[in-house]
Write a structure and sequence with these properties.
By secondary structure, this protein is α/β, with parallel strands linked by helices. The protein folds into two domains: 91 residues, Beta-grasp domain (Ubiquitin-like (UB roll), Roll); 70 residues, DNA polymerase, domain 1, CATH 1.10.150. Helices cover 27% and strands 17% of the residues. The chain has five helices and six strands, in the order βββαβββαααα. A six-stranded mixed beta sheet has the order 1-3-2-6-4-5, sandwiched between helices. The structure holds FE2/S2 (inorganic) cluster (2 copies).
């Protein structure tokens, strides 16, 4: 599906010189948006496009709740200027859903391993894990742990998250490799 949308940023008192047009593809949909120079990608995603699966936690780059994938890399959307996303492909948690609403293997693994409690951290962790697994399809447990070190969970699901990502990576079905292998 290719849809072009155009929205003017909120705040009519902002001068034209302080705004910028950004063309970005988010979850397969192309958008043309007007943003303020200081608008973050998180603000664009949540506040302008209403894709609220991406969460705002600390807003300072410390918790990972706002993690999305830009051009294949996991980024903290709260620190990433929307203007820098011009021409990029962005994936949010809404973009992981497959045809007919099927879950991404990571989403299913989080369910299977009870790796979700309140769920606030979950979208960011899943996207961080996806970006990592896309580049490292056969990771060690320690590599997974390190890859997700920037994603905090106040409910303490970290061990279950590790198991879920390990499962999604296919490591369990390949013979239950041990720690650090
Ligand atoms: S909200 Fe972006 S890192 Fe916490
Ligand atoms: S499940 Fe609640 S913050 Fe992680």
């Amino acid at each position: 599906m290719l849809i072009t949308r155009f929205k003017i940023a909120e705040g009519g008192d902002v001068g034209e010189m302080k705004t910028k047009t950004v063309e970005v593809e988010i979850n397969g949909t192309r958008y043309r948006l007007r943003v303020k120079a200081k608008t973050t990608l998180l603000e664009l995603i949540r506040d302008q496009l209403k894709l609220t699966g991406t969460k705002r936690g600390c807003d300072t780059g410390d918790c990972g709740a706002c993690t999305v994938i830009v051009d294949g890399k996991a980024v903290n959307a709260c620190l990433y200027l929307a203007a820098h996303a011009h021409g990029e492909k962005v994936t949010t948690i809404e973009g992981l859903q497959g045809d007919g609403g099927s879950l991404h293997p990571l989403q299913q693994a989080f369910i299977d391993h009870y790796a979700v409690q309140c769920g606030f951290c979950t979208p960011g962790i899943i996207l961080a894990a996806k970006a990592f697994l896309d580049e490292n399809p056969h990771p060690t447990r320690e590599a997974i742990r390190q890859a997700l070190a920037g994603n905090l969970c106040r409910c303490g699901t970290h061990n279950r998250v590790l198991e879920a990502v390990w499962d999604a990576a296919g490591q369990v079905s390949q013979g239950k490799k041990g720690e650090g292998t």
